[in-house]
Structures are given as C-alpha cells and as structure tokens.
Write a structure and sequence with these properties.
By secondary structure, the chain is mainly α. Among the domains are: 84 residues, no CATH class; 72 residues, no CATH class. Helix content is 72%, strand content 0%. It has 19 helices and no strands. α4 packs antiparallel against α5 and α11 packs parallel to α13. It starts with a helix and ends with a helix.
C-alpha cells in the first residue's frame, strides 16, 4: 500500500513538472516582454506557483531543467515577489556555473522601478564595486540610489581615494553626487584627514551634505591631532560651518583631555571661533564641573552667546 502511494505521489509530481515545462514552451520559452511587467498574466507567472504547490512546503524547490535560473527569476519578477526573487537570485549567484556577472547582466535588463530597486539594494554586497556603481546609477528611487552610491564610493575611498574622486568628478550631475562626496570625505578622513578636509572645503558646494562631511572629518581628525584640526577650521571662510566644526572639535577633545583644551583656549585670539569653542567647552564641563563651566562661559565675548550659554548651563547643571 505504501509503495502504491509513493508511486502515485511521484506520478503527480511528474505530471506537475510536465505541466510547468509545457507552459514554458507554450509561452515561447517565456518571452521577455510577456514577463517583464510585474503582475502580468503570463505563463511564467502561472508556471512557478504550479510547480511550487506540487513540491511540498519549500518556497524555492529544485525545478525541472527546462526552467533555467533566468526563466525562474523572470517568473518571480512577473509576480512582483521581491523576497522570493532575492532568494532565487542569491542561489543563482552562489551556483558555481553561474557567476555574479550573469545576475548583474540580468538585473540591468529589468524594467526600472520599486521592485528592481529593492532587489538590487538587497543583493548589492554580492557584486564587485564597479557593478554596484553601475546598478546604483540605474536605480529610480532617490533614497536607495543615494544609499547604494554612497556606500560604494565610501568603500572605494578606503582603498583608492584618488580613483574614487576621479569617478565622482565624472558624475557631478548625478542627483546623489553630494551624498557620495560626503561618503568619500568621511572614508578618507581616517587615514588622510588633510586631503579629506581640503576636498570637503573646496570641492563640495555647501549645504547640509558639506556640513556633514566637514563635521565627519573633524570628528576623526580631532581624535588624532585636535590642534591641527582646530588650525584647519580657522582657515575656513566665515559663516556657520567653521563655528559648528569648532564646537564639535572642542566637544570631542574635552571628552578626552579637558586640561589640554583649557590650555589651548588661553592662547586663542578673541573672535567668533573662540567664543564658539568657549561655549562648547563650558557645556561639556557643566555636568561634572559646573563652577569651571561658568568661568569659561563668562569668558565669551559676544554678550548674546554668553547669556545663551549661561542659560544652557543652568539646564545641564540642574539635570
């Protein structure tokens, strides 16, 4: 009796497999145009679910030889199932006979849109840097495009910052250009703070991305040579950028060596940068040394900033 049931099950699976193959062949081996549109009523959209239902609970069973990885992935794309498509593409990438380059080529031929962007973002770490950049440039979603480009450029800058800068120079018109510049600068700052700072100040065109990049450089540079970072900040053109950078530099430095900050402040010329440094130092000292914080706040030249700082110190000490 068991033998009979087992044989019947195998027969049913064989019939289902044959149905899948016939559907594929009947659709002209799943013509690309027919399955290129998510949710389409193509044979590809029908074939895969039939085979899955005949193969037990596994969401991605072994399919008949006629259903190649490309055909199967087209079916999943037609069904707009991102999770199953990512899983199947990952198995395609991992297959010894199908290198990642084939998957990249297949992804490049997909119609643009949310589904394609989602799949590319999920699989991007599997591809070489050059392919990630190419795929990112073809993304239609602004945030995903920005994230993928920034991550790729930042990684590139760790190994070859000049090559990354040269590549960015050829893509100045891209919508994610400023964000990618910021990623480049932050990556460079760890080993090349002077070059990173110079690039941020001279090649970036202002706005929030430049400020983030400069602050990122200052954070890393301060950990290595705070006085050099401060000297560079002093060379920036007047405006909010050097003031914000100075506040961040002092905050980080005071957290590790407040005595050195106090000695350094004693030699600064009275100006806006010094006032910004004093305010930042006072706020950093307030929770643990409130009397010292009040003293440094009283040294601020600008009366408006001085009173504002005193008010913030009151809140910090009260906490």
């Amino acid at each position: 009796m068991r033998t009979c049931n087992h044989s019947s099950s195998r027969t049913a699976r064989g019939i289902a497999a044959a149905a899948v193959v016939l559907l594929a062949l009947g659709a002209g081996l799943l013509g690309w145009r027919a399955v290129g549109e998510p949710g389409g009523d193509s044979a590809a959209a029908l074939a895969l679910p039939i085979w899955q239902r005949s193969s037990g609970d596994s969401p991605t069973p072994d399919l008949p030889a006629a259903l190649t990885p490309e055909v199967e992935c087209r079916a999943l794309f037609a069904e707009a199932d991102a999770s199953l498509l990512v899983d199947r593409l990952q198995r395609w990438i991992d297959s010894p006979s199908h290198p990642a380059a084939e998957v990249v080529s297949w992804l490049q031929r997909l119609p643009g849109g949310v589904l394609r962007d989602e799949v590319v973002a999920a699989l991007a770490p599997e591809f070489p840097l050059s392919d990630r950049l190419t795929l990112a440039l073809a993304m239609t979603g602004p945030q995903q495009r920005r994230d993928l480009l920034s991550a790729a450029v930042g990684q590139w800058a760790l190994d070859d910052p000049q090559a990354a800068m040269d590549w960015l120079a050829r893509h100045r018109d891209d919508s994610a250009f400023a964000a990618a510049q910021g990623a480049l600068v932050v990556a460079m700052a760890a080993d090349h703070p002077v070059e990173a700072a110079t690039y941020a100040a001279t090649e970036m065109t202002g706005g929030i991305e430049q400020e983030r990049a400069v602050i990122g450089v200052v954070q890393r540079w301060t950990q290595r040579d705070p006085e050099a970072a401060a000297a560079w900040i002093g060379q920036l053109a007047d405006g909010p950028l050097p003031l914000n950078a100075m506040e961040e530099m002092v905050r980080i430095w005071a957290g590790s060596d407040p005595a050195a900050v106090a000695a350094w402040l004693g030699h600064l010329t009275k100006n806006q940068l010094r006032d910004a440094a004093l305010a930042s130092f006072a706020r950093e000292l307030a929770p643990t040394a409130p009397d010292d914080a009040r003293f440094w706040a009283s040294e601020i030249t600008d009366s408006t900033l001085r009173e504002s700082c005193r008010g913030s110190l009151f809140s910090l000490v009260s906490e």
